Each structure stands twice: as structure tokens, then as C-alpha cells.
Amino acid sequence: MLQSKSFVKKTKQGRIQKVVREHYLRDDIYCGFGPCSTCAAAAERKLDAAAAAILVVDTNVVLHQIDLLENPAIEDVVLLSVVLDEVKNKNLAVFNRIKALCINKARRFYVFANEQHRDTYVKDMVGESSNDRNDRAIRVAARWYQNHLGESVKVLLITNDRDNKRKAIEEGLNAETVESYVRSLAQPGLLDLVVVPTSGDVTMEDAEDHRPSKKKVIYNEHKPMSEITSGLRCGIYHQGKLRVNRYNPFEAYVGSESIGDEIVIRGRSNMNRSFDGDIVAVELLPQDQWHESKSFIADDDEEEEDVHLVPNSADDAPRNTSSTQSSVGSSAPSVSSRPVGRVVGIIKRNWNSYCGSLQPMPMPAGSGGVAHALFVSKDRRIPKIRIQTRQLENLVNKRIVVAVDSWDVLSRYPSGHYVRTIGDIGDKETETEVVLIENDINTRPFSTQVLACLPPLPWTLSPGDLANPNRQDLRHVRVFSVDPPGCRDIDDALHCTLLPNGNFEVGVHIADVTNFVHPGTPLDEEAAQRGTSVYLVGQRIDMLPKPLTEDVCSLRADVERLAFSVIWEMTPDADIISTRYTKSVIKSCAAMSYVEAQARMDDSRLVDPLTVDLRNLNSLAKIMRQRRCDRGALTLASAEVKFEIDSETHDPLDIGIYQIREANQMIEEFMLAANISVAEKILKHFPLCSLLRRHPSPTKEMLEPLLRTASSVGLNLDVSSSKALAESLDNAKNNDPYFNKLIRILATRCMTQAVYFCSGDLTFSEYYHYGLAASLYTHFTSPIRRYADVVVHRLLAAALEIAKLPPIFQDGPQLTGIADNLNYRHRNAQMASRASVELHTLIYFRTRPTDTEARIVKIKANGFIVFVPKFGIEGPIYLTPKGDKGGDWIVDEVHQRVTKPGTNISYAVLQTVRIHMEVVEPQPHRPKLQLTLI
């Protein structure tokens, strides 16, 4: 059956155009119910014959009750196509979660294509809103199920929309609210998962103050979207993403393109119920209220709103640009050049699920009733969340997950609901899972659909692979790999052959992952969503299934593997004569660790061909590295921590700084060169849809802390360009052997984040990679662990005309979305890795109080921040008692020194101090590593 659907759209030229499309309707779409004899026998049967009821859920139930739907107690659910389309348009994250339920064979969730069924398709009515039309379509589908199944089973429409429920009952349908249905299941614990409607938030009993007479308006109402849109258009309001200071939850920043600066938001009232990551509308305060805030170290249990931290790193918040001498006792606040504002509306919420524990409280008399409690997130940027629960005795002293539902103007805290329990507080596995949840890391096992995409195992090279004219046989070439110790997912290898003309043929061979991961497959979609592998201490969460990462694709020694190769002819001076790209077959002769490769190069007695190849590569790499540095590439430093882990308990046995060797730098140099070569190739062929990576130049404000620190020790850094900064860092030396590395660590923290982008979204001048001093850069060399490299492999194959460019590359917005997700996933992976290091540091020092040396890296009004070189740890040292915001100490910002008047006691930046380190628990469930002066 054929229907015509028409709609109007606006063309790029501004003309209004009517579009008519054919819409095919069928009558052979299966209902999904097991005993149904009417529908096709071969079709999928997901709805159970013994079900008490078949549930048809509306859009808002999916959007707001997804935590409940994911509970195994909820089964036999019909998801209508009209509902899924609406959910996808409104919240992609929820859509992915409900989609996972639908494809999970262990869950009874069935997708019914009501928009394609002849009996359930509904035409638009004149004057009917799209929301009303979709609600009507849901009722029509529910009625069809009711008539279709007859007396076999009860069909129940679940909706919290009063009007939709009323109409359904009037039309003879069975309809219930979410709460009434859950109550009928006689499982009280499930009621904790039910999201309290926003309108009910006002009448809920406050978790902190149970007296209704104390209710008062705490926050301003948010402006309606119509007023926000108008205000943004005329410059009254400014839009941007709100970022809460990681070290002070009462201060936030909104990057505004409209004024070209970041707006400071101070205090909960000015944040006006916004969360970290929300897109907000901000109104600037009068300029006489733009006061500079003092730079303090905040206490862990700080609850006052008069503490304003200067941010600690580039990704957390902007820098304080003031360089004047200031005294803590000064009563006249200086006027800041940085704008200060308040949030007037939320444009897009960023509410997530949060990990933490319940605030200690007396247990209420009796049990089983509804108890009110305050949830405290492990992430200090998140405000306390009030929940109601019927299982309080089971949740105390547990790490739990809570989701936010609403935040009313009458409530100091947002309201939320309990989602699930993770485990006991302090348990290492529990705390590791918290790290993963907090950073939105997907740890679900790969689905059967994903695993079905893998090639049969054991995999071996086929005659077709060798006969492929687009794949060169390089098995005769002496290829080898150099990786971290114990590495099993080897995605890069090299060769270096001396040519008769005295030049070298150097090849970088990368695992040909795209030979097995095809566009649009469940495997590809899963990898795209995960974005990257995540590395924790002693643990790895893979982007791709292990059979691929550790066997089929891994370039292990003595096995034939498929690769994508970049091959140069180089002179002994590392000048590139020619470059070619080819799919290949290789057989690695050795898989070495960095330590093993370095030992070979250093042992003068070894003159075997493999060792000679290593030395030749290292000689070329040194020349290439020096040439990069001469162009202005930065040699920065970071404190990468290395743990020795007990093989049985998996607890840390030792902690130290990861050592970088020449072998590491050699591999890095050729990977950088391959990435640059591939970037040039794909951009030449695809100037509008190449996936590249750029590193924006840091602003002067971002570099200010580094300049102030350097100036205080008599060092003049030139930051006019990356080349000038690189030369300045090379000359930053004194009698202290650690001084230069410390300066480079501080410089690293002032840098912006490198990001992926689509070439068509920016101008060529914006492609620049500041840290590498490269006009073009991309990621090609790690497709086993990064999806960006998979995308780039497809671009390179298309540029070589050995594969077609997938259709997605013609969709600019979708490409931009891929880049955005890659940046999000990469950032989260970094944060999870750091959090895992912090967790294992706490575990290590819990039983090992230690005295050691530390370096002062930042001066504060009530203390200073120190860096511990031996362990790569950073933390605060307090000079004043808790709650004392400076006392008699005076801060000299110019010379970066804090002094106590009337004494000769002072501390300066980069000074060495002796400290004591031990784990304490100043607040319940919040252990921390405490540093104190000896």
C-alpha cells in the first residue's frame, strides 16, 4: 500500500519548497508475540507467551525512565518506531541505551514498525501538533495490539502524560502511569528507580529540612527559551558550556564566543542549578562586581561559597592574569578584567548518572518505609543530590549510582533517584568501577552481533590476500616491532633496509584493521561509539574484541599479518626522497620491548642485521627529531607514573616515574612522520572530509602562570611562537639538574588540548599543530586502539583508489559528530587513566607513610602546591589551620613567594621542601593523600 507524505523545507537560497515522498505500508509486519498464529512463523518471537502484560511505552517513559527499563524486572516491552525516532532526535545517549536493550537477545524488548504497518500508520491532522500526532499513533498501535492479540494477553499502555492516559482510557485501552504499574509488581525496591515528575519535586519532603514553613525560593526561575533566544540575538545573554572548577565546586566558567572570553560564575546562586557540562545562557553582572578572587587551597569538605580557587590546569579553567603584589589582609578588592556573570537559563542539560555514597545520617525508626537521604558524589563538582529510597539500610556504606531528575527553585539540592549499587566503599574493584562510570567508559561485553562480525578463528592468511593486486607481499623484508613490555596488541612495526645507492628504505607498517572492521557493521558501530581503548593501572578496556586486538590484527613475531604501510626512501641525512603507500603482507621477525631494543643498540658487541637496523633507525630518528625541534616543535615533559602490580592481589607493590629511553623516542619519531605523511595524502584527495588532528596555540592568559613562575626565578621565557618557547625551554638551566624538567612540566600544563576535526569545518590556518610545529597532522598508526585511525585508514585506501569512500564521508554534520565523539572519548579515557593512578596511589600509601622531597610549583594564600618528583604526585601543603583563609601570611605574586611577617619564614616557587605523606580520611568515604611539612 502506498501513501504520500509531504512537508515543506527551506532551501539554501531561502526559498520554501514542498517535498512529497512515497511512504510504503505493509500488512506483514510481525507483532513479536510468541504464540501468535496470525503472523509469520519464521519471524522473531521476543514477547513471552507467559507475560502478565505486553507493555507499550510512550516517548517520555523511554526518555525519563531508562534506568527502570534497564532493570531485568521490566520485560515484554513493545518499542514503537515512532517512539524510537522521537527518542533519537531528543537524546542520542538514551537512544543508544534503549537500542542496546532491543538487540539484546536476553531481554524481551521488541521493535514494532508502526509507521510502516498499514493498520497502525496515522496521517497528520490539520492543526494537530507533532507531539499530539505521535501520541495518537502510540494509542492506535496499542489498540492494534489489543485487537490483534485478543484474549491471549493483556496489552498495557504506560504513560505519565495525563492527557494521553485519559484519551487512552476513553478509547477503551488499558493505561497506567509508570509508578502505578511498578507498584503492581510488588517489588518495593523498583520504586526507587522511578523518576519523580518535575511537578512533584516541589511537594517532595526536603532531605535536609522537613519543615514546610522553611520552604523559600532559593534560586531564580530560568528564562523561557523564547526570551533566551531573543537575548542571545541582541547580545544581552551569552551562550556557552559551563565548566565547574575541579578544585572548587563553587566557581565555574563559561566560554563565550560572543565576547571572546570566559565568563566567571561565582557561587551556587549564580550557577542557578546548572551542572558541569550544561549549555547555559549567561547574563553579565555590572562591571563593578567583577572583583578578583583570592587564590586559596580549598578544604575537601568546603561548604562555604566564599572560596575561589585559581584553576590548576588548562582543561579545568582559565588562568588568573593578575601579576601584582597582593596581601591576604588587603580589604580593597581589585577589579578583574575577566567578566563575571550569572546563569539565567539552561539551553541543554548534561545530567548523567553519578557515583558516590549516602551522607552519613541516623537510621530512621522502623524499616521498609520511604526514607529521604542526601547523596554525595565522588566528583566534587557535582552538588549533593536528594533521593528517596525504600532500602536505606542496604545502601549505607555502599558506592551507589544516582541519576538526577529535576531541580526546583525551592530546593537547595537537585532531586534524583537511586539506580544501582556498585559495591562496598573502599573495595578496589568497586572504586575502579566508579572511575569507569564517572568517565562514561563503556565496559559492557561485546554483543553477539559484534562478535559475529569477527573472522573465523584461528585466522590465517588466504591465497586471496596474496593474490590481491593492491596488496604488496613484504614477507621477505626484515620487519620488527618495539613496544612496551608485555604488549599483546601490536599495531605498528618497522623496517630499515640499506639500498645500493646508500640511501635507506624505511617502512612503517600498521595493522590493517579495516580489512576486518567494515563500515556500517555492528563491529564498526561499536568501535565508533567507544572511540578508544582505555588504559587503567593493570587493566585495559578494549575498543575492539580481543580476538582482533591480540590475534588477528596484532603484528606479532613469526606470523603472517596484513598491514597498511608507509614506505619512504631516505638519505643518510633523513631527507625523504620519495613516499609510497600500500596495503601489504608482513611477517615480523621480532617483537621487542623498549628495554630490549635499547639493550641491543647499547651493546657494542652485537652486529647482527636486526641490531644494525635498529641503530640505523635510531640515527635517522635523532636527525628527524632535531629537525622538528629546529622548526619549533616542543619537547615537553609529564610525570608518567609506573606501578609494579602484585600478580595475585593486583595491589601496587611499588610506584615510580616511567623512564623514557632513546628506543621510545625512535619509535615516536617514525610514528609522527607516518601520521604527517598520511595527513598530506588524504587532505590532497579529500580537502573537505579528511579527519585531522590539530593543537591550538595557547593564549597569553594560559601561559601567564608559567611566565610568572619563570620570572620569579630570573628566567625570561619567549612565548611569541612555539619555536621561541622551545628555544627558551632549552636555555632554562641552572645548577639544579631537575630544574629544566620541572619548567617543562609546568609548560605542559599550560597547553591546550589537541583535538580531532573535519577538514571542511576549518580554514587551513587552523589546522596547525602547535606542539609538533606541523601544518598538518592526523592519527594513522594505532587503529587497534583508536577509532580515529580506522577512519583515516579508510580515507587513505580511498585516496589510493583501492577502496570506495564510505557514504558517511559525504555527510558533513555526521563527520563532525564523529570527531566530537572521538574528542569526548579521548578526554574521558585520559581522565579515567589519571583517576586510576590516583586510586592506586592511595592504595599504595595507605600502609606506607613516607618522608620525601618535594618541589613547590604554585603559591597560594593559605599554602602552596607541591610536586613530588620521586612518585610523580602533586598535592597541597596548608600553612594555616583549616578554615583560616591566610592568617598573617602575605603572598608576593611577582616573586611567587609567601612570607609570614615578623619572621624569616618564607617559601618560594620551585623551592625544595621535605614533606610527610600519609593517607587520611577527613570526611567519611573520602580518603585522601595528605602532605605535610616536616
UniProtKB/TrEMBL annotation:
It is found in: Nucleus. InterPro entries: Dis3_CSD2, NA-bd_OB-fold, PIN-like_dom_sf, PIN_dom, RNase_II/R, RNase_II/R_CS, RNR_Ribonuclease, Rrp44_CSD1. One of its GO terms (biological process) is rRNA processing. It holds the Pfam family Rrp44_S1. Residues 321-338 have a biased composition (Low complexity). Residues 298-338 are annotated as: Disordered. Residues 53-166 form the PIN domain. Its main location: nucleus. SUPFAM superfamilies: Nucleic acid-binding proteins, PIN domain-like. Coiled coil: none annotated. Its cofactor is Mg(2+). One of its GO terms (molecular function) is RNA binding. This is Exosome complex exonuclease RRP44 homolog A. It comes from Urochloa decumbens. The lineage of its organism: Eukaryota, Viridiplantae, Streptophyta, Embryophyta, Tracheophyta.
